[in-house]
Amino acid sequence: MPRSLARVRRSRDDGGRRFDRRVVTLPTRSRLFDDLVLYGGPARQTESSFHFLNRAAGKAWGAVRELLENWYASYPDETGDLRMRFRQDDPRQHVAAWWELYIYVLFERLGYAVEVHPAADGTHNKPDFCISKDGEVMYVECTVLFEDACESVPDGLAWLSRIRRVSGRWAQCGRSWPSAAHPSA
């Protein structure tokens, strides 16, 4: 966040500890996060990931919000669907929207032309993306698998079992699970 757009106030919590309260005054059109007084402290047990990110004070959390806002600024979300899902308390909606945004930015930065929710021949469903580069075209559907929901998804247990087998083989070889590509700001 540009420093000129935020004011910092020192405050004390109920226990007398000092923390920073930032009053953020950024434009709200097509933004993921709200303009509100930011405050520190760990995430509360009942606090959703979005609500924590939305209110967390500190340089690191500000950098996360700024990165996500920059990603979202390039995402064509005319209906506001991605923003709405990103802001949900339900982690299945929030994480899925984050993953869709991440994959969009990843392919965009890899030089692909990315079309969001294209019409696909032979179905009324719309995949998340149609990507193209050098004459090659591919549809992409972003999916997030939650371990606790695997039993309700027929292929879920098979995927989870495969991931555990592969990660177990990596561990036997003295390696850690490889990191995913990370699109930088």
Descriptive overview:
This protein has 185 residues and is of the alpha+beta class. It folds into 3 domains: 1-74, no CATH class; 79-143, no CATH class; 145-185, no CATH class. The chain is 35% helix and 16% strand. The protein has helices spanning 49-55, 59-74, 81-86, 91-109, 156-172, and strands at 6-12, 18-24, 37-38, 113-116, 129-133, 136-140. The strands form 2 sheets. The protein has a 3-stranded antiparallel beta sheet, with no helix packed on it. It has a 3-stranded antiparallel beta sheet with strand order 4-5-6, covered by helices on one side. β5 (129-133) and β6 form a beta hairpin.
Write the layout of secondary structure elements.
Layout: E1 6-12, E2 18-24, E3 37-38, H1 49-55, H2 59-74, H3 81-86, H4 91-109, E4 113-116, E5 129-133, E6 136-140, H5 156-172
Antiparallel strand pairs: 1-2, 2-3, 4-5, 5-6
Write a compact overview of the structure shown.
The chain has 185 residues and is an alpha+beta fold. It has 5 helices and 6 strands.
Alpha-carbon Rg, integer: 20 Å
Largest sheet: 3 strands, antiparallel
Tally of strands: 6
**What would you call the structural class?**
alpha+beta
- Look at the structure and give the mean pLDDT: 78
End-to-end distance, in Å? 13 Å
Helix content: 25-40%
Give structural attributes.
alpha+beta; three-stranded antiparallel sheet; globular; disordered N terminus; 3 domains; 185 residues
